[in-house]
Amino acid sequence: MLVGSYNPLFVVLSVLVAILASYTALDMAARVSVADSRRSAALWLLAGSGAMGAGIWSMHFIGMLAFRLPIPVGYDLWLTLQSLLVAIASALFALWLVSRPTLPHLRLALGALLMGIGIACMHYLGMTALRMHPQIEYDRFWFALSIVIAVAASWSALFIAFRLRASDHPLPARLAAAIVLGLAIVGMHYTGMAAAHFAEGSVCAAAGTGGLPTEWLAAFVVVVSVAVIGVTLLVSLLEQRTRSRLLHLRNSMLAASLDDARKELFHANLHDPLTGLPNRQRALERIDQQIASARDAGHSLAVLSLDLDELRQINGAFGHHVGDTVLVGVSERLRQLMCAGDLVARLGGDQFVIATPIEDEPAARRLAERVITAINTLRVGGRDMRVTCSIGVALLSADTEAGQSLVSLSEIAMRHAQQAGRNIHAVYAEWMKGSVEQDIRLLADLRSAIGTPQLLLHYQPRIHANSGRVGGAEALLRWRHPEHGLIPCERVIRLAEQHDLMEPLGQWVLNEACRQMRSWQDAGHQDWRISVNLSSRQLGSGQLLGQVRQILEHNGLHPSRLILEISESVVMHDADTTSTSLRALAALGIGISIDDFGTGYSSLLQLKRLPATELKIDRAFILAVEESDEDVVIISAIIALGHALNMDVVAEGIETQGQRTYIERLGCDYLQGNQLGQPVSAESFMRLHGGVALPAVDHSEP
């Protein structure tokens, strides 16, 4: 038997090639598993199987070259190429198997068996490429052991490659696994070599019949193995670096996006999405900070709560998109009006809040008036729209604990401003809290105020639509409390009605209005008329008729100069009783006006039974007359109805020139509203309107 020997250098080289091939296999498994497309995965699978197969094949032939026989040796070219193809096919199968999402034990075992057989086939095909005569004999034990080692090595390779295919495993773990796999593959090869027995006198037929010389095979194997494995690992390294850079760039972009998203989320959590102003939560935080700064600096702080008076009517008349535009326009006006360090926030709905350092209460009042003026006219959708608001002002005091309490006080003042009338402001006072004790004190003060200069009447002009001249006025009650300032009329009426004070208060108002009307009549305004509102309690009193007759006689005023206004809802509450009382008043020659007409539920039959001489259209219809065809139709119908029943028709709440133009063209008889004249004292009324005719509007243009 021929006895061979091993070249230690080639043995070491085979081990290194086996380890390098194993590392390549592990790296390729990772590349295939993380590929972001099927095409990319297929390319890595093919490249990896070629590199891995060539590596295992190179290890095998370097190991065979390490084996020296005392005869010339060569290798059959075709069988050598077949062994290379088997190695590549085995590697392709292995990489495909470990790239699957799962690798159950049965699939792992079958895969290891097929791969082990493939590697063994490669080895023994390579041995057959020697074309020995006589043929090589194999020891059954060592032959079987080599197969077992090949299957075991394949099982280990598949298992480790599947477990380490994630690309985030560190280099030492992969290198250690590659060493284990490389030694297993080398062990299979040298076990197979140990199984081979060469008979004495054997001849290598491939050495002299066109086979590959060992020198050429050695050079070919080394070049192929180094080139294929080296190029594959280089490409993998470059791809990994590129992926790492892309991942770093993506992470950086993602971090920046997350940071932007966090900032946007933080901003959205503390700001109103429509106007971009701080919301209630942020506003309270800012006011707390301003309170601390104000106390440190020793100055005061004013908080203004602002509520738009008729946003609901705007939404109903023009749509919510117009209402949203109004809110945005108001927010912009407030931003422009206030300084950079001041707070402008939207608390929700139609309510805004302003917080700013202030000198004193007069300065706060001046600021509130500037705010009212600033938002009175907005440009919305190419048209001017009048916007009114009610403002409550609260000033920082020594017992103010936090921004929430200051805002609450300003909201209380705002509600009182709303009760007192639109487009005004009110500064918070203690009595506004409305406790029972405060109501009792205020009621006592009201009893004492009747007949004193604390109570006074303001007068708003009623204008003839055709001529533009003043035709009289509506008397409106005001109470200027010496301690609390102007008390809203609605609060005065509520106190009076709840405590049976309405009759003396109403009697005083009626007498004062008639006295003033007599004074104007003596001044030459014989055609003027005065209108006075009656409450439900006055109307239900059995003494009303006698009081009215006595007041008219006392002031020497003809009944035709007096108009008594009753709201439509009061008339409909008890139509029969109301009708009886109104007929008695009308019999004196007094004018009867149905106020807020269109908001109640009066029928034509009930209206016909009433001795009314005048219908007063509710201001809600006037607000949208320029844009709402429906409101134009309603107003036209009311005017036609009034004229059909021989009644004058009055439009109240005219705020713009456009509204006035529309109403006059529709045939209304009298006009009333802030655009024509605001409620003022009797002296101011005479100075503004006595002897001066307001110009009529030219209706020649359509």
UniProtKB/TrEMBL annotation:
Residues 6-199 form the MHYT domain. One of its GO terms (cellular component) is membrane. The keyword Oxidoreductase does not apply. Residues 299-430 form the GGDEF domain. The chain crosses the membrane at residues 6-30, 42-67, 79-98, 110-129, 141-162, 174-196, 216-238. Pfam families: EAL, GGDEF, MHYT. This is Diguanylate cyclase. It comes from Stenotrophomonas pictorum JCM 9942. The lineage of its organism: Bacteria, Pseudomonadati, Pseudomonadota, Gammaproteobacteria, Lysobacterales.
